[in-house]
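Entry type: protein chain
Record version: 2
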Amino acid sequence: MSCVTGTLVLAGTPIGDIADAPPRLATELQSADIVAAEDTRRLRGLTRALGIHTSGRVVSYFEGNESARTPELVEALVGGARVLLVTDAGMPSVSDPGYRLVAAAVEQDIKVTAVPGPSAVLTALALSGLPVDRFCFEGFLPRKAGERLGRLREVADERRTLVYFEAPHRLDDTLAAMAEVFGAERRAAVCRELTKTYEEVKRGPLAELAAWAAEGVRGEITVVVEGAPETGPGELDAAELVRRVQVREEAGERRKEAIVAVAAEAGLPKREVFDAVVAAKNAAKA
């Protein structure tokens, strides 16, 4: 005789505008046997905004108690309960609590389904103006400067578009570190307060964005960074380096600035680009 188990439902919640809540979210909140919420106070605010009430038991499920609470929820699922997991915003498990519970449920052969909802990752990608056909999500970077640089160096040659979450008070340091590792001219977009009243998308080279962020930025932040160029560091020939400098000069940059930018973009010493430009200039005179 087979044992009937319950269902784990991962529900996406609005990242800003409550009107973005999927219709199924209200239904699941009202019918779940257990609602596991990252913050029960925020859950109450969400249900008030939706004009509904939960009928099941509400428990907290956040980073601090995730390991201890998971076995309890799995036991309820094995017993046939329908457990709804919600976080403060977005989809559970994506840089939020949920992975441990999903893994434990899968191990017990418990059905896991989802209520698709808003995603800061996908929303920022779509608004960034950068390639979205291939991307990788890197979550939050380490807080310590050395560890942060190390993590960035791991993906310095990654050709896919990169997506990060970041706290506003660390944004300027993070962007400066990205400019150092990826190159000052690598394109990026800082997406702030997505779907909220003061939504803002700031696009530009990393160095320029770092200078902007140094003045102070507020709100929830998602950073989208262009992938590394198809030609890897050190692979550009002298003619291509000269061409890139010329393009920048024609766009109004001073030669010195153009050389610095191209060197950063190509991952080469400034002297190598400078020598290529001088050699081309001398060849033209000959």
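Comment: The chain has a mean pLDDT of 92.
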